[in-house]
């Protein structure tokens, strides 16, 4: 019998929309992800002050958020898996594992998370990695159903490792849509999806998902371009954003959060978001 995840979903979404700031990059074992996260306690303090809807963290970080006494602090989204696909060189064996296979969501329950998140990697010529992700999702879905924990699945279509010196978002809508559909049919309550190369195609991702879709940010980019692309993706039906490096690697994360929250919750344009950032 499945217990409804609605109670926790209500903590994550405000009027059906959400900004989730991801700082769970430490489990990727990738040095380029770490600038800006050295003082993780300070980062959490900054983000709580900035006031996004949620912060995406690992078990070993979550106490920095959940031990805080504020009643209105951001919701916790907990990463449950880890793997090696983000490194700039291809490994002899590519893998993705749940951090606790016997009880996949016990840490999320302990830390009172509003949501749990697991990857669904699709890398060229890596069928075993894909199979591992499917097994991780199946185990997690069963546990989430037992305890009413929303499951966010992160379907990632990546380019070959030798194209840009590391696995990067492919952006091909013809690959993204089937993988999103697979995530939906495996029981995702929320999907964290790659942006399509042409934002005008993103409505196809929304149609395939049939559950709330949050757009994954990826690597750090020019901030004004990020706002413009985000506005276009939100206009296609995305219900929010999950951004990490485009927030925590900027000099003033609070102003970036303010601009993105205005886009998500008030519908301001990319240009208006840029002005909010500049005047913050």
Task: Please tag this protein with its features.
280 residues, alpha/beta, TIM Barrel, 8-stranded parallel β-barrel, globular
Structure description:
- With 280 residues, the protein is α/β, with parallel strands linked by helices.
- It has a single domain (6-279), classed as TIM Barrel (Alpha-Beta Barrel).
- The chain contains 11 helices and 10 strands.
- It has helices at residues 6-12, 40-50, 59-66, 106-110, 127-147, 173-185, 202-209, 223-235, 245-248, 253-266, 270-279, and strands spanning 18-22, 54-57, 75-79, 81-83, 96-98, 115-122, 151-157, 190-193, 213-216, 240-243.
- The strands form 2 sheets. Strands 1-2-3-6-7-8-9-10 form an 8-stranded parallel barrel, surrounded by 7 helices. A two-stranded antiparallel ribbon has the order 4-5.
- Strand 9, helix 8 (223-235) and strand 10 (240-243) form a beta-alpha-beta unit.
Short characterization:
With about 280 residues, the chain is an alpha/beta fold. The chain is about 40% helix and about 15% strand. The protein has a single domain (about 5-280), classed as Aldolase class I (TIM Barrel).
List the helices and strands and how they pair.
Elements lengths: L5 H7 L5 E5 L17 H11 L3 E4 L1 H8 L8 E5 L1 E3 L12 E3 L7 H5 L4 E8 L4 H21 L3 E7 L15 H13 L4 E4 L8 H8 L3 E4 L6 H13 L4 E4 L1 H4 L4 H14 L3 H10 L1
Parallel strand pairs: 1-2, 1-10, 2-3, 3-6, 6-7, 7-8, 8-9, 9-10
Antiparallel strand pairs: 4-5
Helix pairs in contact: 2-10, 6-7, 8-10, 8-11, 10-11
């Amino acid at each position: 019998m499945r217990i409804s995840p609605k109670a926790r979903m209500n903590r994550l979404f405000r009027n059906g929309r959400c900004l989730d700031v991801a700082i769970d990059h430490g489990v990727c074992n990738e040095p380029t992800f770490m600038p800006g996260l050295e003082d993780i306690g300070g980062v959490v303090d900054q983000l709580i002050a900035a006031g996004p809807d949620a912060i995406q963290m690992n078990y070993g970080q979550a106490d920095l958020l959940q031990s805080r006494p504020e009643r209105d602090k951001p919701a916790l989204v907990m990463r449950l898996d880890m793997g090696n696909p983000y490194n700039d060189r291809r490994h002899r064996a590519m893998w993705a594992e749940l951090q606790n296979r016997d009880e996949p969501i016990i840490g999320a329950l302990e830390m009172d998370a509003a949501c749990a998140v697991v990857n669904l990697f699709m890398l060229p010529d890596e069928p075993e990695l894909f199979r591992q992700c499917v097994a991780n999702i199946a185990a997690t879905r069963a546990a989430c159903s037992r305890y009413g924990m929303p499951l966010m699945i992160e379907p990632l279509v990546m380019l070959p490792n030798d194209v840009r010196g590391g696995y990067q978002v492919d952006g091909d809508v013809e690959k993204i849509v089937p993988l999103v559909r697979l995530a939906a049919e495996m029981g995702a309550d929320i999907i964290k999806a790659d942006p399509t190369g042409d934002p005008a195609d993103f409505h196809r991702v929304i149609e395939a998902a049939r559950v709330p879709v949050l757009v994954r940010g990826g690597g750090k980019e020019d901030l004004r371009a990020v706002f413009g692309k985000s506005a276009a993706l939100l206009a296609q039906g995305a219900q929010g954003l999950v951004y990490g490096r485009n927030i925590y690697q900027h000099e003033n994360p609070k102003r970036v959060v303010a601009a993105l929250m205005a886009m998500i919750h008030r519908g301001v344009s990319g240009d208006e978001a840029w002005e909010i950032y500049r005047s913050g």
